[in-house]
Amino acid sequence: MSLRHSIYKSPAQLRLMLEPGLATAASLDAVAGAIRAGVTTAELDALAEQAIRSRGGAPNFMLEPGYHHTVCASVNEEVVHGIPGERVLEPGDIVSIDSGAILGGWNGDAARTFVVPDPAHPQVVAERNRLNDVTERSLWHGIAALSRASHLNEVGAAIEDSVRGESDYGILTDYVGHGIGRRMHEDPPVFNYRVRQKGPEVRPGLVVAIEPMIVIGSPDTSVREDGWTVVTDDGGAAAHWEHSVAVHKDGIWVLTAADGGAAGLAPFGITPVPVA
After folding, report:
1. Whose C-alpha in 64, 165, 186, 199 is 20 to 30 A from the C-alpha of 4?
2. Residues 33-51: what's their mean pLDDT?
3. What is the pTM of this model?
4. Half-sphere exposure of 31 (CA within 13 A, CB side)
5. Does 188 sit behind a cis peptide bond, omega within 30 degrees of 0 on the bond before it?
């Protein structure tokens, strides 16, 4: 099978990816409305599942062997793949929620990070909000780069330049973005840092999940005994943002944003174009 047929979707296939993207966005909207001190990560998981199923989809994370939840909920030093449960969120926690939906055999995948307010410790909250903002901005820098890139490695370079231009935060290298379509994780890998290999050509039909994972300290990580949760070795806080983005003949469209990415891309002078 040629590279073109393995990673590039047809216009009809791109249209089929719209609804799972919106279902994924709806699940994160539901979580965003409920994040507060005192809520458990299991409660957030239930809200995300309800939002996906109400749109006719199913949680695609449950299709991963051995995983039984709708979202990954990663708190503080947990970077990604945290398992929802009875953990109660506390003031000042930084919480990354990664969610995905499958609908009609096609997938969506996205993540957002939230900081729980804590008036008693404004410095901690300010530090974590800054980490969160830097991470989210780096995602949009990567998406903006995709809109004008000739090859996929330009996305990682833009993300790294964005992070380095604002901070000395660590960029995870052991975990990267990916293609998405019939399967949640497909080729090609999408790096969050500069690499020498150009990667595949950016042209209509390419759909990728771009997901910078940024930490306050060292990017060195380990996996906990549960076999899933990735944590920073130095205990530093982490943030994770992700969108699934389609390249088509008229431009790009952020599948997991209700506005197609209009608000996030506006500072770059880029107007996303709906998939026709």
Report:
1. 64
2. 98
3. 0.96
4. 34
5. yes
How big is the chain, counted in residues? 276
Cα 251 to chain centroid, rounded: 21
- Strands (DSSP E) contained in the chain are 58-59, 71-75, 78-80, 94-103, 106-115, 170-171, 177-179, 186-190, 207-210, 213-215, 221-223, 230-232, 238-240, 243-248, 251-254
How far apart CA 217 and CA 197 sit, in angstroms, is: 27
Neighbours of 174 (CB within 10 A): 11
Decide: helix, strand or coil at residue 248: strand
pLDDT range class, residue 5, cuts 50, 70, 90 = low
Cα 138 from chain centroid (whole Å): 12
Domain boundaries of the chain, sorted by first residue: 3-268
Token pair 């590039």: residue: 8
| pLDDT tens for each residue of 85-119 | 999 999 999 999 999 999 999 999 999 999 999 99
Under CATH, which architecture does the 3-268 domain have? Alpha-Beta Complex (3.90)
For the stretch 239-260, pLDDT in tens is 999 999 999 999 999 999 999 9
* Phi, psi torsion values for 109, nearest 5 degrees: -155, 125
Alpha-carbon torsion, ordered 46, 48, 53, 54, to 10 deg: 110
